[in-house]
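May I ask you to review the protein record following this short note?
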Amino acid sequence: MFYRVHQFVQAFFPRIHPSETFEAIRFLSPKAKSLFLQQSPAEQRHALSVAQSLLDYQDILSSSDYLDLVTAALLHDCGKSLVTIRLWQRVFIVLMQQMPKSLWIRVENGPAFLAAPLKIAKHHALWGGNLAHKIGLNPRICLLIREHHTPSTKLGQMLHKADNEH
């Protein structure tokens, strides 16, 4: 419960020290930096937290694996930058994730104002992977972004675990 309250406060009042952004985006190409900065402050805060929690993997992964993983962490929710997500919608998504899948499907096929946030939650990973592809990121990063909720690789599982911690 405390975790969710903390998550809500961070979404409402995201605090990012400029040094955090500077340190993180040094990993990114100029186009990837632009994609990171297009994210809302709440998404940037989340991405920075996810990337930070991957530091433990730095010594056990090859440098290219680690760089791909951190890049994907910083951009994994960039697909959300294509739409406006209100705070109530974020809360609604989190609450619906705790409900049975059958209810999710019914609501997703129901009134547009309730269905829209669920469609964003469902499709943002695909949108983000497509954005990453459009700016020329390597296919593995694009795949990590696309599959960050349903990982099929070891790196994907690491990203998924870190994402779920924040």
User: Anything to note?
Assistant: The CA atoms of residues 15 and 127 lie 26 Å apart. The two ends are 13 Å apart (CA to CA). The mean pLDDT is 91.
